Amino acid sequence: MDGGLGEADWKVGVDIGGTFIDFCALDTRSGRVASLKVLTTPDDPGAELMTGLTLLAEREGLDPRAVTRFVHGTTVGMNTVIQRKGAPLALLTNAGFEDVIELARLRMPDTYSLFCSRPDQLVARDMVFGIPARLRSDGTERHAPDMAAVADAVAAVRAKGAMGVVVSFLHSWRDDAHETAVKEEVARLAPELFVFTSAEVWPVIREYERTTTAILNAYVHPRISGYLSALEGRLAGRGVPARPLLTKSNGGVMNAAEGKRACVHMLLSGAASGVNGAAWLARQAGEPRILTLDIGGTSADFALIVDGQAQFGVGEMIGEFPLHIPSVSVSSIGIGGGSIASVDGQGVLRVGPDSAGSTPGPACYGRGGDRATVTDAMVVCGWLGHSQMAYGQLRMDAGLARAAVKRLADELYRSVEATAQAILDVAVSEMFAEVEKMAARAGVDVRDFALMPFGGGGPMLGVFLARELGMPRVVAPRWPGVVSALGGLVADLRGDFVRTLFAELTPGLMPTLREAFAAMGGEGRDWLAAQGHSGAAELRIVADMRYAGQSYEIETSLNPEWLSGNDPGTIADAFHAAHARLYDFHDPDGRIEIVNLRLSAIGNGPALQFPTAPEEPHAASAERSVPVFTGGAVTPVGLYRRADLQAGARFVGPAIVAQEDTTFAIPAGTAARVDAHLNLHLTFAE
């Protein structure tokens, strides 16, 4: 093994997806970057992590004892919800409000579908218990909790085999005394049950949103807690001195001890890490406006980066359930490299949302899969299969891919190649529709953005999508397959805090705003200290605001300096501008309400720098020419090795760029160049 504890300082980022676990490691002393992908082990989450560390040690000389930062993102929580394998739970709420999660917002998931139905809740109706207790909306007590009813509920909970309890009462965002008292009584009566209150998870107004967020936290708690404990043990057994940090839905990180309780904050960690890594790369490359495309084995995720910063929001979906905590805004669709193609009862070709995953995987992997996937279609067309995949762990079997696609071709009365191209066209069209919806919600024109594709599948389809969207450029990082792992590597510590005010913006509210900001700032600094951060803290503040009479709010960024004095004019102007930007309308005379004040406490992560090289323009040489079906005919396409493309290299498509972690498919007429950071820039002919 090369190197040793005194000769290296490794920072390691890890991200587990549906098919692969990705590693991105940087030796800060030498500037050397190591990357790796390993197939996941769904039956034993975490085992693939040990396999990856072993391979990094063998191939790259990584000494586990020299790892001083270890950041880990995982889909364990997300998959637990999607697969409905979480803990059996009970819900204690106010008597008379037992149907709060069933009623939800009285909206159907698909308003215009005659066959639409609501998802089954994570807490069964017979596991919801009403407790006589009531706070008024101003936080004053009307009825104290009936502890005899709590005892009866606990007895029923035990008899029905629940593992945990969620306590969610009306108006606990004002005062959580009732929830706390009931939690303590449940813990006294049944110490074997874990208990969460809605106010401790995310204390916001609107009981449905607060309750569902608390339920999600409790539902995944046992599995995430057990997983993290096993992770800590495995790392310690390998001699890794760094305590693991976990990527969060907000793009930051937290320590594992907090992750075992604040599970809900890491449900979207994988998607957020990818956007975080892309934002870091965009800042390095000087790209102000980026649309990210992260395609893994199961899904395609999209996000916007403006001025080098990821965009945030609330209400992201975890499977069929909304998550009401600040998260990196990501739109997802069930189109990935492993997405299965099929012909429906009407003879229409469909792609996704079912995925072959890592087991058995696409047919071309030779691991037992026999259904055609997007990856198989790429192989049949000739874009894939000319080199080893996933750092030599996979060899593409074109014969198996062709056999899988032929079954669909026979149903469609098409050639195998035409069917494969149709699979790719359907996948791109599905992503096109999702991007159009996302852009409309955000009020942007994607033609003003460059596309950054990453993940194992992003480079395969990203250039085709960008061309269909009318986007001018594609910017592809050197290691697109491990951008999510990079996102954890460069992430900041970030904790989010909230105060629900639900008050009109007037001069009289300004002292309350200052008081709330000071309190949350103190909480944020204490949180950073508990994470082991001793440096300066950056405090960012936003308000959820609306015109009086509106049902929902928009996020408005505030400057802490605007809270001084008693004139709310600057805050009002910021809200008017935000409303006009989103809706092309504002009411300068309208009354404004602040519903929530939210604060992010940020402790800067490591200031990492990847090596660069001077950009010296030169024509790149293709290794060889390979036949590719490009939609109408078979065309000779130049095959380039990414490792051979140095800064300043230039070539024109059609082309294939093969590398350790993915493959780029570049259509005809696309001009390519490599910059000083080894990013690949692609522009389309007019």
What is the strand arrangement across the widest sheet?
3-2-1-4-11-12
Count of individual helical segments: 16
Low-pLDDT sequence parts:
1-5
State the shape: globular
* Oligomeric status: single chain
Beta-strand residue fraction: 25-35%
- Tell me the radius of gyration: 26 Å
Helix content: 25-40%
Give the overall average pLDDT.
89
Largest sheet entry: 6 strands, mixed
Cα(first) to Cα(last) distance is: 52 Å
Domain Acetophenone carboxylase-like C-terminal: 513-682
Pfam family, one: Hydant_A_N
Protein name: Hydantoinase/oxoprolinase family protein
Domain Hydantoinase/oxoprolinase N-terminal: 11-186
Description:
- It is a single chain.
- 31% of the residues lie in helices and 27% in strands.
- With 686 residues, the chain is of the alpha+beta class.
- Strands 3-2-1-4-11-12 form a six-stranded mixed β-sheet. Strands 13, 14, 15, 20 and 23 form a five-stranded mixed β-sheet that branches.
Key words describing this protein structure:
single chain; 686 residues; alpha+beta; five-stranded mixed beta sheet; 27% strand; globular; disordered N terminus
Quick take:
The chain is α+β, with helices and mostly antiparallel strands. Helices cover 31% and strands 27% of the residues.
Topology:
Layout lengths: L9 E7 L3 E8 L4 E8 L7 H14 L6 E7 L2 H7 L6 E6 L5 H4 L24 E4 L2 E2 L5 E3 L3 H13 L4 E4 L9 H13 L4 E4 H4 L5 H31 L7 E3 L5 E3 H4 L9 H17 L3 E7 L4 E7 L2 E2 L1 E2 L2 E3 L2 E3 L3 E2 L2 E3 L5 E5 L5 E7 L18 H8 L16 H15 L3 H27 L7 E5 L3 H12 L3 E4 L6 H7 L3 E12 L5 H21 L7 E10 L6 E5 L10 H15 L8 E12 L14 E2 L4 E6 L4 E8 L7 E4 L2 E4 L4 E4 L3 E5 L5 E5 L2
Parallel strand pairs: 1-4, 4-11, 5-6, 5-9, 9-10, 13-23, 29-32, 31-33
Antiparallel strand pairs: 1-2, 2-3, 7-8, 11-12, 13-14, 14-15, 14-20, 16-19, 17-18, 21-22, 24-36, 25-28, 26-27, 26-28, 30-31, 32-35, 33-34, 35-36
Helix pairs in contact: 2-7, 4-5, 9-14, 10-11, 10-12, 11-12, 12-13
Protein name: Hydantoinase/oxoprolinase family protein
